[in-house]
């Protein structure tokens, strides 16, 4: 909402408060205004509660001033009005420079007129010749101008999308579309593109009109309908069919078409699409439109469709101007002609007006504007203005710090070389290599008896015909087992390729690809077009130097713009010292000029110093964002000639940036991004190099990744052919034919072994005792044995499996007797589950539930909890937050989840065998060490996998909390959780080197925490004396916050550190809940005295004293601050490695938790950060433990493998501790 709207809403309220008596007319106007306001409020859409799920913490540069927020909301609302279907004329009525009060006249009205003074400091008589402006007013005015220019650019981009780029914005609800169908427009291969464009116009702009009327004209006229038709689905289908049937119909009788369409009633807009020169001259057409337009306002929207005749363009422009319509140009071969249309021309005119005002502001900063003197108060110094533009670009953390070098563990290869060893053919996994031993050529011979050639039929019936890679047909014997094993190998190979692609898409390889040569030269594009991306280029070069340079023999860096300059005259060895010096040289690079590729290549290849040392360049890596100044043919010819005697490869890397600003730097040669990519791709392939194309969002094209993806597609194709071969064998089986007759066959190919056709279904036999029944009998005997009751001797297990009739009756009587036995609660038995083992027909049992101990029903196996932690950050200390969302509270403590019974091997009496035996199948159950005790692992593999998924979700939430604690003012002051606080700020002489940083952090604290969270506050400055900002706590209103920021900006370091006096002064405020003490050293008085005095004063009140160590390296002072915070049960904060922690947290969130031990989070001294990092490390430890536990399921020895493994087991081998109750 504009400022004028605010004033219009406030006016009735103000008038009502000012005058006590009002006339009837005034009251009536006031009532009407209130009614309009009420109606506008009722017409507003209903409020929708916004979702904050997945919200990230706000960055440090978030706008906190309320006026700036209103300006940004207004700009966003203006940007949302692009798609209202308005023409530029209508749109600019509410969005022009004049409407926003941003003209030069409006700027001058904000200045203050000052009369000139003489040497005696007296004002002279005469007309004033000097203007004076406030710096904030000028900066805000200039910011709004740049914002308006960006808005106009966004609208131009919107007008150049879809059908609006071809036909412009169509206005009107009842539209007549008149199309040129002459031979010139519909011939020469233009008709297909013309039809596609018209179909796009119907689908995007004409489908929502009220009425449509379509007509084409050549020598004769052709109308789809006699009168306009109301738009519906059937009408749109008829229009699409009519467009698809368009063809050339002779000449271009435009006059007849205009006469016809102007006689049609019920239309309010005519769209005329021309692609050729009309048969009539321009004067006749203009004269007819002038006469026909009298008394009828039907605007002509004239569109020139890919027409190179300038007379046609002039004619259509005149027709549009006379009829009050608009003119639009579309030219596929010339992008500049599109900007001559009516809508875009008006926007460009507004951009020029805004740019002129900006130029005047630049003149004002120089002190003159015309003949008048101009002075701007509180302006930045001239020294700051002399700094290059790149100094004001945002930089990543530790951008100017020394390199952190990483040595590669292996020598990287290009994907082409890597696939020679790991490709499908290199691993002999080509389908034709696998099928070759079982593939036979078709035999065809001439038989003299019958006098004709006969082909063998036995192989065709017994084998499958398969097309070979050379196009021939061969008979193949299909072995499903072989193909199944082959598909498993294909799956493993595809996973290897996926890991390779993932490796190529990370770190510096995402930016430069892999550096495979030993002696390399890096060419960096420093043209003026890259001025806004210089920090990105430097950061990319930093990653390259850190990760891929230590294993090379020699390297050099060349930066080029209009001229080329190298880091060293010849290639240097990549030692640590040389790499650090190269990085310092890269930090001093500045952008300017164009892209002189040829000069950079000559400097790299024609280096006499390198030739003297017999060092040839193996690889050149060209990092650029645009096309060279020279023609591509010239560059390619030079590279071919220069690399004849040396195996040098040129690898081109294209950094995709946004198109340049028309008011900014214009390169020497311009090409769109597709043409640039094609040029650099050709340049790389000429020298057998590689092409790499990326942007900030990811890789667009890479020769290395393309080769891997091609091999993956080949593997998928081979897998599909395997399934088809197995399916062909399956269809020949008698069972499949029978199922096909019954209509129950499955057409989907499967790699499963089929049952033999001899296996027929038999009638089910009568029920009899199975092995599981015997197992139940044994359990019953064990229970009776434990109760001390004698059991009749059972038959040995070696006897016949089926029990006799007497045994059956005995078992039935036993069950009847036990069912009648009363149950006792105090003699509860553990429940068991019976299962078959892998060895013959033996069975075993496992405990499922144990007796109730101490009246607490506690299950051995615990379910995995699925916790939900709110995404919105709560204003709590980490200690309080972890009480709600810690691992123990969320029931994700792995030690408690896997703590089952102890792994024991006690002997037990078995009634069936009549002897005591130990557990026989303990190796089935994995055992783990839990806090020094060997226990059975009670969780299965899928449960551990579910646990890992939940712990990863909790870890991500913890890391986002860590990022929030390290963001904005919380990085320095921690989280302010109380609602009434006093901040004690140390401004002693030792703070001189950190005073500017302290001021910035205090300003961020005021706006980011106090004002946003509605925290009442006061600030007290102390050094040799004490100076409070206010006498007591104040509310965080906008006025108070502004005043606090102004007061903080006056801080000057001087004097001693009277910490005790500042604390005593803060305790005088009866309403204070907590005190935040920020200092960089020990107090003037003894630390013991400060602790003693604070303890006496604070014993009853219990005010929290949170201490903040600000750039303090004195460990004694840090110990004092830690003791003071602990004594008051408060928090100690010292953000020593805040930026590194934020970077490591971001890296963990980005890369995941595949490597548990890397990256390592830094050690924090802050209580909040330390507790949270400890919980994160505990969660990572649990995740590592869970993965190791899950691997036990794949390495546990099965009973049937026991004998095989024992043969190869050394005599001193000790088995892992496993246990189970087995029979």
TrEMBL record:
PROSITE patterns per the UniProt record, alphabetical: VWFA
Domain VWFA as annotated: residue spans: 980-1176
Annotated TM spans: none
Name of the protein this chain belongs to: VWFA domain-containing protein
Alphabetical list of InterPro entries matching this protein: VWF_A, vWFA_dom_sf
Record's compositionally biased regions (Basic residues): 25-38, 818-830
Region Disordered: start-end pairs: 1-61, 740-832, 1195-1223
Listed Polar residues bias regions: 15-24
Biased composition range(s): Basic and acidic residues: 1-12, 781-790, 799-817
Annotated source species: Patiria miniata (Bat star)
Pfam families: VWA_3 (PF13768)
């Amino acid at each position: 909402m504009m400022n004028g709207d605010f004033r219009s809403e406030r006016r009735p309220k103000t008038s009502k408060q000012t005058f006590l008596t009002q006339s009837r007319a005034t009251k009536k106007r006031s009532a009407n205004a209130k009614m309009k306001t009420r109606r506008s409020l009722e017409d507003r859409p209903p409020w929708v509660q916004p979702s904050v799920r997945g919200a990230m913490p706000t960055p440090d540069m978030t706008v906190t001033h309320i006026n700036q927020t209103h300006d940004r909301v207004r700009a966003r609302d203006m940007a949302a009005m692009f798609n209202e279907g308005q023409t530029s004329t209508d749109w600019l009525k509410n969005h022009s420079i004049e409407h926003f009060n941003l003209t030069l006249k409006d700027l001058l009205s904000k200045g203050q007129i000052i009369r000139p003074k003489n040497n005696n400091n007296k004002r002279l008589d005469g007309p004033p010749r000097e203007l004076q402006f406030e710096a904030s007013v000028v900066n805000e005015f200039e910011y709004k101008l740049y914002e308006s220019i960006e808005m106009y650019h966004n609208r131009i981009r919107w007008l150049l999308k879809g059908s609006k780029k071809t036909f412009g914005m169509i206005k009107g609800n009842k539209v007549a579309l008149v199309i040129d169908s002459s031979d010139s427009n519909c011939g020469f291969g233009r008709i297909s593109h013309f039809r596609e464009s018209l179909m796009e116009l119907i689908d995007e702009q004409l489908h929502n009109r009220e009425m449509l009327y379509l007509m084409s004209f050549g020598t004769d006229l052709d109308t789809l309908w006699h009168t306009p038709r109301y738009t519906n689905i059937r009408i749109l289908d008829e229009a699409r069919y009519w467009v698809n049937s368009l063809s050339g119909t002779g000449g271009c009788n435009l006059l007849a078409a205009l006469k016809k369409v102007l006689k049609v009633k019920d239309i309010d807009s005519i769209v005329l699409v021309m692609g050729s020169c009309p048969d009539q001259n321009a004067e006749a057409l203009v004269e007819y439109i002038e006469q026909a337009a009298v008394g009828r306002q039907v605007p002509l929207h004239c569109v020139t469709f890919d027409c190179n005749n300038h007379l046609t363009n002039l004619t259509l422009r005149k027709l549009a101007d006379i009829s009050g319509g608009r003119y639009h140009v579309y030219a596929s071969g010339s992008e500049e002609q599109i900007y001559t249309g009516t809508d875009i021309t008006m926007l460009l005119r507004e951009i020029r007006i805004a740019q002129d005002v900006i130029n005047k502001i630049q003149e004002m900063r120089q002190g003159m504007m015309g003949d008048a003197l101009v002075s701007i108060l509180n302006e930045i110094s001239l020294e700051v203005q002399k700094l290059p533009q790149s100094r004001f670009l945002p930089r990543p953390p530790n951008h100017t710090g020394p390199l952190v070098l990483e040595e590669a563990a292996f020598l990287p290869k290009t994907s082409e070389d890597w696939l020679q060893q790991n490709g499908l053919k290199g691993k002999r996994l080509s389908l034709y290599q696998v099928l070759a031993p079982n593939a036979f050529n078709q035999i065809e011979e001439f038989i003299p008896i019958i006098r004709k050639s006969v082909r063998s039929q036995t192989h065709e019936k017994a084998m499958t015909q398969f097309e070979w890679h050379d196009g021939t047909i061969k008979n193949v014997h299909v072995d499903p087992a072989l193909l199944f094993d082959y598909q498993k190998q294909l799956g493993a190979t595809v996973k290897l390729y996926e890991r390779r692609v993932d490796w190529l898409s990370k770190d510096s390889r995402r930016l430069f690809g892999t550096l495979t040569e030993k002696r390399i030269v890096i060419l960096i594009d420093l043209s003026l077009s890259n001025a806004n991306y210089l920090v990105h280029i430097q950061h990319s070069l930093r990653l390259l130097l850190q990760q891929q340079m230590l294993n090379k023999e020699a390297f050099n860096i060349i930066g080029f713009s209009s001229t080329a300059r190298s880091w060293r005259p010849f290639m240097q060895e990549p030692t640590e010292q040389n790499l650090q010096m190269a990085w310092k040289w890269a930090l001093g690079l500045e952008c300017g000029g164009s892209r002189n590729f040829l000069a950079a290549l000559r400097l790299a290849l024609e280096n006499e110093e390198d030739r003297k040392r017999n060092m040839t360049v193996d690889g050149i890596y060209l990092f650029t964002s645009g096309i060279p100044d020279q023609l591509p043919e010239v560059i390619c010819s030079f590279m071919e000639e220069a690399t004849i005697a040396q195996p040098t490869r040129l690898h081109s890397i294209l950094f995709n940036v946004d198109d340049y600003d028309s008011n900014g730097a214009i390169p020497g040669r311009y090409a769109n991004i597709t043409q640039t990519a094609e040029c650099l791709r050709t340049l790389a392939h000429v020298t057998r190099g590689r092409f790499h194309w990326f942007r900030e969002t990811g890789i667009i094209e890479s020769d290395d990744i393309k080769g891997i993806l091609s091999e993956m597609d080949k593997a998928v194709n081979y897998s599909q052919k395997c399934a088809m071969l197995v399916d062909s064998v399956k269809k020949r089986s008698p069972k499949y034919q029978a199922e096909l007759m019954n209509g129950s066959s499955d057409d989907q190919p499967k790699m499963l072994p089929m049952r033999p056709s001899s296996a027929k279904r038999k009638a089910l036999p009568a029920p009899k005792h199975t092995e599981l029944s015997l197992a139940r009998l044994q359990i019953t005997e064990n229970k009776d044995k434990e109760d001390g009751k004698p059991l009749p001797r059972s038959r040995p297990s070696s006897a016949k499996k089926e029990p006799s009739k007497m045994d059956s009756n005995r078992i039935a009587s036993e069950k009847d007797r036990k069912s009648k036995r009363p149950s006792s609660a105090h003699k509860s038995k553990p429940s068991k589950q019976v299962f078959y083992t892998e060895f013959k027909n033996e069975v075993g049992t496992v405990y499922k539930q144990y007796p109730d101990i101490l009246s607490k029903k506690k299950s051995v196996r615990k379910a995995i909890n699925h916790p939900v932690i709110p995404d919105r950050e709560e204003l709590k200390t980490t200690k309080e937050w972890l009480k709600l969302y810690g691992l123990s509270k969320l029931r994700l403590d792995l030690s408690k989840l896997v703590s089952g019974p102890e792994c024991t091997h006690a002997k037990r009496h078995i009634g069936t065998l009549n002897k005591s035996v130990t557990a026989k199948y303990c190796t089935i159950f994995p055992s783990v060490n839990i806090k020094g005790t060997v226990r059975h692992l009670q969780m299965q593999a899928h449960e551990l996998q579910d646990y890992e998924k939940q712990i990863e979700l909790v870890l991500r939430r913890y890391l986002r909390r860590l990022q929030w604690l390290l963001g904005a003012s919380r990085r320095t002051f921690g989280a302010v959780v109380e609602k009434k606080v006093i901040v004690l700020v140390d401004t002693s002489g030792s703070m001189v080197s950190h005073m500017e940083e302290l001021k910035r952090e205090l300003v961020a604290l005021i706006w980011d925490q106090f004002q946003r969270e509605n925290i009442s506050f006061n600030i007290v400055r102390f050094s040799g004396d004490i100076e409070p900002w206010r006498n007591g706590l104040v509310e965080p209103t906008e006025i108070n916050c502004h005043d606090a920021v102004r007061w903080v900006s006056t801080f000057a370091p001087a004097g001693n550190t009277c910490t005790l006096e500042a604390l005593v002064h803060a305790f005088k405020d009866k309403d204070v809940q907590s005190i935040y003490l920020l200092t960089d050293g020990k107090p003037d008085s003894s630390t013991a005295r400060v602790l003693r005095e604070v303890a006496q004063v604070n014993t009853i009140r219990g005010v929290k004293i949170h201490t903040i160590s600000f750039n303090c390296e004195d460990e004694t002072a840090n110990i004092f601050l830690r003791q003071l915070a602990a004594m008051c049960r408060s928090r100690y904060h010292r953000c020593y490695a805040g930026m590194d922690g934020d970077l490591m947290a971001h890296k963990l969130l980005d890369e995941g938790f595949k490597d548990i031990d890397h990256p390592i989070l830094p050690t924090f001294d802050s209580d909040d950060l330390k507790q949270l990092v400890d919980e994160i490390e505990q969660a990572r430890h649990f995740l590592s433990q869970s993965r190791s536990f899950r691997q036990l399921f794949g390495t546990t020895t099965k009973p049937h493998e026991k004998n095989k493994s024992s043969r190869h087991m050394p005599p001193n081998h000790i088995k892992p501790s496993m246990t189970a109750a087995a029979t």
